Amino acid sequence: MYWLHTHFHSETLNMPVPMEVLLPESYVGTGAKYPALYLLHDMGDGHTTWLRKTNLESYLEEFSIAAIMPAAHLSYYADMFCGKKYFTYITEELPAICERLFPLSTEREDRMIAGTGIGGYGALKAGMYASDNFSIAASFSSPIDINNIAARVHTINSADIFGPDPDLKGSRHDLYAAEKIHTKTHFYLDCETTSEFYHENLLFAQHLEHQNLIHSFIEMKAMTNVRIQQDISLQNFVKWLADHKTTVRKEDR
Amino acid sequence: MALIELHLHSKVLGMELPVNLIIPQEKQPFNKDKKSKVLWLLHGGSGDESAWIRMSSMERYAIEYGITVITPGGLNSCFTDMEHGGKFCTYMTEELPKTLKQIIPLLSTEREDNFIAGLSNGGYGCLRVGLSRPDLYAAIGAFSAGNKADIPFVNDGSGKAYGRIEVFGEGEIKGTEHDVEYLAREAIQSGKMLPKIYHACGSLDTWLDLNKLVYHFFDRHHVYDYTYHQAEGYGHTWDFWEMEIVNFLNLLDLKKDNTSYIGL
Q1: Chain B 223-262, CB below 8 Å of chain A: which residues?
Q2: For residue range B185-194, what is the model confidence (pLDDT) as tens digits?
Q3: Short-list A83, A98, A125, CA closest to A34
Q4: What H or E segment, with its residue span, contains residue B247?
Q5: Which member of B1, B6, B103 has the closest CB to residue A8?
Q6: B169: pLDDT confidence band, cut at 50, 70 and 90?
Q7: How confident is the model at residue A45 (pLDDT cuts 50, 70, 90)?
Q8: Is residue A27 very low, low, confident or very high in pLDDT (cuts 50, 70, 90)?
Q9: How far apart are CA A246 and CA A33, in angstroms?
């Protein structure tokens, strides 16, 4: 595994930003381009959290997928009302930079995005509002309802991120409000049945069903610790991704 | 594009070692076909892969001259194939370029785009590595260098003697692959295109005499495009190496470009 601890400049954010990149060695010499998984952190965490607090590297090694872990600070993955354009950064500039720098596939099918907690909300938002750029969007134990998400943020910060309107239903931050979603996008949600977000996930899965959007909803057993939960979610997802890609490849043939 | 701290496992060395890369970040939109020239930059006896980055303004020069700077870690190997340790020259010439080409495809692997430089033990190292593979590098920049083969072997039981045995084995190393003169003669005999050499040493450097021996050798071998610069008043210090890396970059025919990269 190649681990690239990277500092670069984001023109979208107009500041230097860090990211962690993992490239499995199995591709070296094959000339093939890596499928890439963009992994988003929860608020309060950072770009190193996946590396430090999960077994990410072993899962990627087994299934030969590259991982890109950017920092989103406290942006809630939004193009902020009064702040920087993190959503544009993550969904547009970051893949462009990574595909220039590393041997990543530039095909939509090979670009996937996932996250835990708010990172999962961000990933689903990318799947909804930047669906031409990502073929799979996945969330682990993530809150879905935008008004509930905003209500948990301090009022002043919430206004900076989402704007002053207390009702964000129908706004560009609302996962339910997206239109023109790429029909081949696959949404993947997992949630513990005991989670406070379980009901939100269940409703969202039903919404995806009604919209005829491809989706998988995985009900998880609750673990004693959020990090163990995160690690198991990741392991299941990467395994699912590998199986899924094999299936899709067979269907294409 | 970036400053990258790359951690990789080397099959040649049998262990994991870090390599730093400074890749000048292009302004968007990107020209996907553009390749970057590469300066391989070696640290000295008390340094590691972070030395040039921490002790000099290397990133600023990388951007100014539009060249990727790769600083590999070489432990205490002097970047030779150690007699009792890792084969660092093989790692540098056979493994690392191939690996990096695979994971960072924008790096040019053309000889004319690749240069190697270093200070002190890395100054010796860049001559050792560069002359053993004249097909890989268009130019060598050796600062406060010296040919290790010019230092008589003395085993007085000291730590210094032990260090030498570890890297170069017991006994003299004249006429071996650790000998800069031997490698330089072999390179001539190979008939391959020879790298341009820029060699510099401060007049106050403790090892000035060793540098003069190198100078005298190349002065007798006109087939090399060789330049020697003795900097008056400078010792074995970073202000000197900082000045010399810029002198070396200026010799490389690089186009200074203050519009294409971020950071200027």
Answers
A1: 262
A2: 999 999 999 9
A3: A98
A4: helix B238-251
A5: B1
A6: very high
A7: very high
A8: confident
A9: 16
Nearest chain A residue to B5 by CA: give it. Answer: A5
Domain that holds residue A111: 2-252
Of B6, B23, B30, the CB nearest to A96: B30
The answer to whether the CB atoms of A8 and B2 lie below 8 A apart is yes
Please give the model's pTM, rounded to 2 decimal places: 0.94
Q: pLDDT tens digits, residue range A216-238?
A: 999 999 999 999 999 999 999 99
pLDDT average, residue stretch B46-63: 96
Number of structural domains chain A divides into: 1
Domain boundaries, chain B: 2-251
CATH classification of B2-251 is 3.40.50.1820, yes or no?
yes
- Over the stretch A137-165, which tens digit does the pLDDT of each residue have? 999 999 999 999 999 999 889 999 999 99
Residues of A in contact with B105 (CB under 8 A): 102-103
The answer to whether the Cβ–Cβ distance between B7 and A7 falls below 8 Å is no
Predicted confidence at residue A31, as pLDDT, reads 77
**CA–CA min distance B16, chain A (Å):** 10
When pLDDT is averaged across residues B8-34 and rounded to a whole number, the result is 96
Beta bridge partners of B36: B107
Outline where chain A has alpha helix (H): 49-53, 56-63, 86-88, 94-101, 118-129, 146-151, 155-162, 198-210, 226-252
Identify the closest residue of chain B to A93 by CA–CA distance: B28
Cα separation, B217 vs B147, whole angstroms: 10
Chain B, residues 74-103, CB within 8 A of chain A, namely 99, 102-103
Residues of B in contact with A7 (CB under 8 A): 2-4
The string of DSSP codes covering A49-65 is HHHHHS-HHHHHHHHT-
Which tokens is B128 given? 């050792």
Give chain B positions within 8 Å (CB) of A8.
1-3, 25
DSSP A150-175: HHTS-HHHHHHHH-S-S--TTSTT-T
Instruction: Give alpha helix (H) positions in B21-172.
Output: 51-55, 58-65, 88-90, 96-103, 121-132, 159-168
Q: Do B263 and A5 touch (CB under 8 A)?
A: no
Both tokens assigned to B122: 């890395």
How far is Cα A99 from Cα B29, in angstroms, rounded to an integer?
A: 12
